[in-house]
Amino acid sequence: CTVSAQMLPAVGSPPPCCQATLLLFLTQRFYDVEMLLSWRSQLTRNQLQKKNVYYGYTQRFYGLDIASAYFILSLKGGFRFAGQSEWFYADQKGKFSWDFLNHKDTPLEEVDMSYTVINYRGLCNLESQRSLRTLKLRGCPEVDDWFLARLHVFQDSLEELDISHCPRITTGGLAALRNLKGLKRLDVSSLPGISSPGLVIILLEEMLPQCQITATGYDYNLNEAEGEEEEEHMQRQR
Amino acid sequence: SKVKSFRKKAADALPGSSWSPLQINPNLPPERADIVIVGGGVVGWSIAYWLKQKEMVRGGVRVVVVEKDPTYSQASTVLSAGGIRQQFSLLENIHLSLASADFMRNINEHLGVLNEDPVDLQFNQSGYLFLANEEVAHIMEENYSTQRYAGAKVSLLSPTQLKQKFPWVNTDGVVLASYGLENEGWFDPWTLLNAFRRKAISMGVIQCYGEVTGLLRPPDTKTEKTSSGDTVDLKRIGSVKVQMPNSLEYQPVECAIVVNAAGAFSGKLTEMLGIGSGPKDSIAGIPLPVEPRKRYVYVVHCPDGPGLDTPFLIDYSGVYFRREGLGGNYIAGVSPEEAEEPDTSNLEVDHQFFEERVWPGLAHRVPAFEKLKVTSAWAGFYDYNTFDQNGIIGIHPLINNMYLATGFSGHGLQHSPAVGRAVAELILDGNFKTIDLSNFSFRRILTQEPMLEKNIV
């Protein structure tokens, strides 16, 4: 505390504003702040795990399909039953209609979990749907390579997979798609985790020959062109 | 200015200042510690992390990890091929692999440090593929049922299914194949080691670079007598003598528990206490059966080789290979026969070995590999357990406070998170709590009951 008194601004300068005094106060309590930040990250992680918890109670009383449907709706996703043509969605606030309870024991055929926080543990609620044809996971922040490896449970039925804009997927995870032999359409656009997208897309096409792969949103220009442009720009400035 | 510096030095030397002409080497370990872990590889740091993770009170145990070589030039961890698989025949090994894969899946939850970059293991989820011929197909089927029972996601493939899935494989001689669907692949061992190390140091583990040159007895050692009147020398480690690198300076670290995680060099540590040099038919006469064995790994480049879905293929002849990166590079090797074990005094690579033993097997199994070029190679040590090639985990019967966690014979890296947790449970809780590894204790060496893996290789 005596050190900070010496560090305070010298005589003659204006007194520090609230923000500066707050920061100086916090610098004395480094370990407390570190503890608070780690508690906050622990809290966000716990909330995420709570969202992706195993819906065992629902499974026991309502059956596997209703449990999967309920899970999808609670995470603000959408799905379509096999044999039906209407989609069941939850709106932005999380409200959904309970009509899906009328369709007992119908498996799910298409699932749209785009922009939801589903992760590996949440996938255990969907594993029972062995006749799943379409799975959309566009922009999911928690879908990573281990999630993709788990998708092997759908290897017989899955025909369409959309994993574009997922920040955590890397090349090692795309190798896990080798098991999905029935895949017909795959969307891997704009994956920030892949370092050399052109090469990876070619290797994916070789690995899954019957699959139509969509891969937009990548800059396939050579880096040399960018370097030349920068040099010209520098020369013009001189 | 010379006068000025002289005056400053004289003023410093006066009583009341903290300057002293004798400077203590800051790299010395502390004089006292609770647990000294000998060996700074992935197993040693995993044990250090789990000890800190499980302690009930902050600062409850003072852990020091002693590593001989800061460059890790001979350490098995960093020279490993980095694969993890669940395809074992012993239930304990399968459980260890599953637990380690679970750990790696949630690695940022376990080893994430605040305000530092997240850990990226670069895990390739490509699976392992074992090929069996007629003689060993029944072993593979038995192992498959054990693996499924334990919860590993493995599938069996017939030769036609194999050819359909991997058209580049020559299914000549193959009767059955075992393919891992999930939790199998390879990753970067250096990242895992550094993640453990960074997290453990952030939790207060003390890292020390030095070599353990002696294990000293505590001052109040007693000797026991057996019923027939012979004296049994119960050894107990009182302090560990740690010598600084390239120096004669040493520091005896007084400790309560020593963990032997020295990998390929674990045998030398127990020799310091006389284990192995007692009378032939006594416990003291049985040395720790862990010795270094050299294994070669060759990096080859083949432009027409298998693509992104290449698994870690292990043939029944012992030849293995896996993809490395995206540019058509592969890593290949083979386990040599007992008779042709290479010399372990150095880590020099024998390129003739590739021509004679590895290439024919590779070219037979994958015809595209007939045209390949060896770009690089390296050699590393296995901490080879000469008794049954599985890890030794537990207290040594004669040395009452030395815990062994060594002898994994090539599986140390993939089991390291789970083994670290098991040893921490043994030390802090007294028993195994999550995975029961009592079958891997030193007892099996005394009773001569090997826990052999029924491998096809």
Automatic annotation (TrEMBL), chain A:
Classification via Gene3D superfamilies: Ribonuclease Inhibitor
InterPro entries (UniProt xref): Leu-rich_rpt, LRR_dom_sf
Annotated coiled-coil segments of the chain: none
A Pfam family the protein falls into: LRR_6
Subunit-level organization: Interacts with incompletely assembled mitochondrial NADH:ubiquinone oxidoreductase complex (complex I).
Function field: Required for the assembly of the mitochondrial NADH:ubiquinone oxidoreductase complex (complex I). Involved in the assembly of the distal region of complex I.
Similarity section: Belongs to the ATP synthase subunit s family.
Record's protein name: Distal membrane-arm assembly complex protein 2
TrEMBL record, chain B:
Protein name: FAD-dependent oxidoreductase domain-containing protein 1
GO molecular function: oxidoreductase activity
Domain of life: Eukaryota
Keyword hit for Oxidoreductase: yes
A GO biological process held by the record: mitochondrial respiratory chain complex I assembly
Entries under Gene3D superfamilies matching the protein: D-Amino Acid Oxidase, subunit A, domain 2 (3.30.9.10), FAD/NAD(P)-binding domain (3.50.50.60)
Cofactor(s) the record lists: FAD
Compartments it resides in: Mitochondrion inner membrane
Location of the FAD dependent oxidoreductase domain: 34-426
Species: Amphiprion ocellaris (Clown anemonefish)
Chief localization: mitochondrion
Keywords associated with the record: Electron transport, FAD, Flavoprotein, Membrane, Mitochondrion, Mitochondrion inner membrane, Oxidoreductase, Respiratory chain, Transmembrane, Transmembrane helix, Transport
Protein's membrane topology: Single-pass membrane protein
Record has Cell cycle as a keyword: no
Gene: FOXRED1
Function: Required for the assembly of the mitochondrial membrane respiratory chain NADH dehydrogenase (Complex I). Involved in mid-late stages of complex I assembly.
